[in-house]
Amino acid sequence: MLENVNEKCAVVGIFNHKDASKLAYFGLHALQHRGQEAAGISSGDGKKLHTIKDRGLVSQVFNNDILENTLVGDMAIGHTRYSTAGDDSILDAQPVHANYDLGQLSIVHNGNLINANEVRNELIQKGAIFQSSMDTENLIHLIAKSNQRKLKDRIIDAVHKIKGAYSLVFLSRSKMFAMRDPNGFRPLSLGRVGEGYVVASETCAFDLIGAEYMREVEPGEMLIFEKDKAPQSIKVFEAEPKHCIFEYVYFARPDSNVFGQNVYKNRKQMGIELAKEHPVEADMIVPVPDGGIPSAIGYSQESGIPFEMGIMRNHYIGRTFIEPTQEMRDLKVKMKLSPITSLIKGKKIIVIDDSIVRGTTSRRIIRMLKEAGAEEVHMRISSPPTTDPCFYGVDTPDKDKLIAANMSNQEICEYIEADSLAYLSTDALMRSVDGEASSYCTACFTGDYIL
Amino acid sequence: MLENVNEKCAVVGIFNHKDASKLAYFGLHALQHRGQEAAGISSGDGKKLHTIKDRGLVSQVFNNDILENTLVGDMAIGHTRYSTAGDDSILDAQPVHANYDLGQLSIVHNGNLINANEVRNELIQKGAIFQSSMDTENLIHLIAKSNQRKLKDRIIDAVHKIKGAYSLVFLSRSKMFAMRDPNGFRPLSLGRVGEGYVVASETCAFDLIGAEYMREVEPGEMLIFEKDKAPQSIKVFEAEPKHCIFEYVYFARPDSNVFGQNVYKNRKQMGIELAKEHPVEADMIVPVPDGGIPSAIGYSQESGIPFEMGIMRNHYIGRTFIEPTQEMRDLKVKMKLSPITSLIKGKKIIVIDDSIVRGTTSRRIIRMLKEAGAEEVHMRISSPPTTDPCFYGVDTPDKDKLIAANMSNQEICEYIEADSLAYLSTDALMRSVDGEASSYCTACFTGDYIL
Amino acid sequence: MLENVNEKCAVVGIFNHKDASKLAYFGLHALQHRGQEAAGISSGDGKKLHTIKDRGLVSQVFNNDILENTLVGDMAIGHTRYSTAGDDSILDAQPVHANYDLGQLSIVHNGNLINANEVRNELIQKGAIFQSSMDTENLIHLIAKSNQRKLKDRIIDAVHKIKGAYSLVFLSRSKMFAMRDPNGFRPLSLGRVGEGYVVASETCAFDLIGAEYMREVEPGEMLIFEKDKAPQSIKVFEAEPKHCIFEYVYFARPDSNVFGQNVYKNRKQMGIELAKEHPVEADMIVPVPDGGIPSAIGYSQESGIPFEMGIMRNHYIGRTFIEPTQEMRDLKVKMKLSPITSLIKGKKIIVIDDSIVRGTTSRRIIRMLKEAGAEEVHMRISSPPTTDPCFYGVDTPDKDKLIAANMSNQEICEYIEADSLAYLSTDALMRSVDGEASSYCTACFTGDYIL
Amino acid sequence: MLENVNEKCAVVGIFNHKDASKLAYFGLHALQHRGQEAAGISSGDGKKLHTIKDRGLVSQVFNNDILENTLVGDMAIGHTRYSTAGDDSILDAQPVHANYDLGQLSIVHNGNLINANEVRNELIQKGAIFQSSMDTENLIHLIAKSNQRKLKDRIIDAVHKIKGAYSLVFLSRSKMFAMRDPNGFRPLSLGRVGEGYVVASETCAFDLIGAEYMREVEPGEMLIFEKDKAPQSIKVFEAEPKHCIFEYVYFARPDSNVFGQNVYKNRKQMGIELAKEHPVEADMIVPVPDGGIPSAIGYSQESGIPFEMGIMRNHYIGRTFIEPTQEMRDLKVKMKLSPITSLIKGKKIIVIDDSIVRGTTSRRIIRMLKEAGAEEVHMRISSPPTTDPCFYGVDTPDKDKLIAANMSNQEICEYIEADSLAYLSTDALMRSVDGEASSYCTACFTGDYIL
After folding, report:
1. Does domain B266-446 fall into CATH 3.40.50.2020?
2. How large is the ipTM?
3. What is the largest CA-CA distance in chain A?
């Protein structure tokens, strides 16, 4: 799967480090795969918060001057976003920053609230105004309206009024807070960097900035970072883990740990399970790069069929707006992917991909392989059929666009023009990862929504 | 005066015209001299408001696609802004747009509130959050919090709580409102365009879009624009006109009418009065372009001394960031202005400028003329000494930076190295414009603040 | 005249100054009105020449780093160009730089060769290759092919083979050469800057960089600049001056001296002569800015009719690509120019412009004034009818596009919808400038081509 | 090897296809890995050649408008270039275009001439001028100066005067020529597209545009493409193949065929040979992506040790100019590559790379793996030690910068901090590819320069 599904964002927070905004910058850099359309950082110098955000890649929004002279201070939170098209999208970049009765506050949010509209309407009825279309604005209002005196208690108040998926980081004048929903849908890890602390959506951010992984922020836990103190932990909700299994299947970087487990290892194990469940005779295993590589390696090791990089990915593409000529069919896929013809020609191939969303890309890939001379193409998917949209922070198409929600396995196989097609079962998927099956959200495969 | 003082913005509103956002665009284009750092337009199609705003010139922020496909509808309001540096300035572009209990609302504002901080603090105490540093955000909050049922009444409520200078245009789902403070500090005119209406800070916007001038929006008046109705006028406050005299002296375009009078004519009359009050023998009258041209023409016609464009203004400059060499003194002024040496050499010159703020530019100009061989340079200023900062929407330096607040006439004359210096008297200034002296704000010359 | 006719370029040369490339940069800045589409500088450090050139304004092509670190050395030549559209135009920027048998050579050229094609064809027949469509490339080939041993003699050889208009500056490893055609069509002045020398198309370049005017480079003269020597002058051709009269009429900056005379003074004198030749009763004189200002002042002083800036020019325009609505007629002119309606209304106006090329702009301006209520509009042009294209370096339209070549005075008057129209006579134009009439090229008015 | 060595360019030619310039565009797109700094296309419409070239990626230099409206005609040649820094580099983009006695000619060149300076000096002595520093300019001069009457014969004349590596494509008004040096150093393949023909540096260009591979252009062969004729072949030189072995080791895309063989297959075979020659016990094989992947697969299949993607490559990097903090060691490598820590920890690893140039990147990678907990890191290189610079079109550092030219195997092993290091032998490298060992240039490994 090369397109169609997008994580909506990533968050990072740095506390007590003299280069806080730079560390936030590099952290976002490592998390860029979770959102490429907008980026922002708020920093705090003990007196004032400073915020810069804009459309574009992390490397386009910031420069040395901004990081060193504007985003000063030893605390910083950052966000990178996959922004949906539409009016005014510039205002939908994060952090969301506001002045309220306790002073200044900035928030970054990874996830999606399912009662956002209700909360928003209720707040509006009470006189609040909303300047963006972001869920996150709700949080600031709830905090501003809380009767509690301390920010900590107001945050607790506020999160009791929202439902959904959230990994949040707050920055006030002197403190940083990290908070995760009771189900822990989206990941959030805690680390040490120098004398300070870092929280981030994935541990690959830690590796780049030289931070040391400590542990997960627990589902339902709030961490309070305060000067000259160890982070204080408050169990705001009882944890009922429902980790997003799609983080392992597709989103997270293979070198990251999320929910305490390594992504590459889990993804490879999915390939091993896939080989057990859906063996087929073939000359070689070929991954759809880059997503299908670890599971293809697993499938190969389990099946003994050789792994080959039979499809290469072109990384110099840039964006092209040139209209193709009539002869150039499937140009969009061919610009990104190309088959090693002389390897594939006359061969029976097992193609491994992480998922099928609409089916159009899979069809183009299989056609391309057949045109290159592949004798048979067997499609193996390292996750169950994606039948249901996500409401917890993943940007999936509507149900009527999801091919597996509308066609049988056999019909999909015909549509994508494969010689055979098989998906990993939900059980096998669960065997590929640590922990209880019940501790994962698999709604996109099962329709069993937790909330 | 070439720099140092800036109008903070301009507003435009279009109602009931199928090309509303394009008319707003060209209107802002004509008003670009009032603010070059950010621009924005909200349009309404009867169902929804659409907003695009960003840093940059009007021509940089918008393109055909945005105007035709995003900013759809037959109503539009626009803003162009001189933005002060600082964090987050992107959020300080207007229109300010919000969802609130009556639906959607966009506001543009020209002026400055003097009780903005009090209002803001009070609102914050009641649970409001502020996401920008703009006065304008107050308005939306006050409207959202009003107990009135109709937007019209809420606006009335809101403007009773604010003090200062404001020419406002509001856009709701189906109506447009224009509102001016009781003193009418900043200008706002009403016109017809096709079957619809236009309001704008200056009438030069009408000329470009082919609109017809109707009248001023009166101080304290609210105009309500509603489909299939003539604009409804509500006298919200008794008018106590205190028009900004500096609009005539410097800001407004010579081809505009503001406060019902033509700027060029008034400005030329100032030159005539200046010649009467402060005659001096000389070979020629030379304006500091472009500001000083109309009054120099007036001075010449009254005095009989020939008018000459002895200083030319260079319009191809672009921004240059090249550091000059040691020999290049006063490069910044010389890049913009250059003397016609062979005209000036050996001559006695009266130089006419509209005002002196810090004095540094005047000094550079006079030095440049002396270096070009001028025998005498007599400085004549077509307004009184600028002694006090403005709190009603003009971006003047602090009092300690205003040369006339800190030096005597004689001292200034010596500082700027002129052979003589004279300012227009306040009385003569008042004679140059129509209406009672009491109907103008002259606080920048007198320190008599109205509010 | 606001458009349609363009000077093709400007040149500058700096010799023996440690900031040579910076001085060249600022010199080009002052000469930007002669060409805005491409710019380039070659510098020499005694060992090697360095060249940077690109499309764009001078301020866009160069930055501090380029000027300080790439364009090193104490000699520099520069060029700014009005480039015609077409393939490969990037290669048509100057300086033209080449390696040849005597080493390295860079050339900048203002003017146009009339035997360029013949020379080029002859060179090509002898085995030369041409990589651009610039006349200037001929020069380098002629120099490279000369049998002379010294560059000085080769340049003399080369210029004997070309015909046309040329103000040239050459840079070799250790010397700079300036050379002007025997007719001196295009201007070139010599000045001192610090311990070094400067040559430039107009003296406004001297003023900006703090250089002192010495004299004109004479028609047919070559100047050789060599370390530790005064510039050596060689009379390559007998001077037969035929200075381009259009430099005074339109091109050159009013503050410049060209051909030894001040532009503003001459232009004003044209207005005086125009008033004598073509008086008409009116309420005011209004220039088409900026070109018509000096002659309008002259006309006013001679006629006693008041000068007014009845049309203002808008300087914030930027480029807009927004398509106007149907109601917006003549938008292109209105974006640039706007009438002071309340000044003009009901008045008889004399409009002064420097020339009429196609007539379309004049018509738009007069319509605009009539719509603003002018009772009568009398057009007075401070030069004779432009009937013939220029082949000596001015980019005029073909003869069939020149309105005065195809219509009688009366027809033009009707076409532009003026109440009367009169042009300055050639005799009167000659009286407006110093020197013999025979020392000017007036081919664009008379069709009497010198070559 | 991630950096340090660069192919200098790629060429493409399209003949007799109505979308010639578009096909050239997409061909260059596929060849973008061979040069990212400048790109250009010349097209021919039977009457005239049109050229557009500039700095930047292929997708940045061209747009639809240029391809459809400027680069018209049914013939086109293109070039993408790795340009060396320096003055004037914009002029060093190709195609080189010139007018000469037979009309117009454009040339693109992949390779490097070893007698370029001699030829250039000789040409300069005869009066030629050189406007760039490109070898390619020599060709046009030699052709222009040839006494032959036909272009075909002039090209033959010209290539007899040059020595070195060249795959050339020429475009004249009505014909296209492809020519390869007698040693065939650089690749050039021939294909059919629609009714027309294509030549390109690698066959991946054919795949993208839907062309069909026909055969190699032979070493020493010239192909003449003429309307309504099959391509005419002329054996200009006796073929003495000396194909660049580094094309297989590193440059060419795995999905390409060059010199008639598939790159992936050859590269994988190098891994197999490497496993035979230099086995070592380990837990896993890890490639340095992307270059080391095929040989790592080969090594794994031969050795039976599992292949793992233990290092991932980050593709969202963009360029960052942010200075790292002190803690961030080896940031440059870490931005691009990151280890799968939980996979590597405590493991014995064989790392496969294609080559070592300076050694610094290898050292950083090994340190990164050790920091991630690798117990042992054994470096295996799928080519012999790079001891000698290339003079035939590859941009290698000087000999004193090549680590293998200055250190023993043992010293390199210590320098890069590996537990063991082994290179593929030249013999084994030759066994990995088809054809006689003598038909390859291995000068970079042996110092045996052919010319």
Report:
1. yes
2. 0.93
3. 73
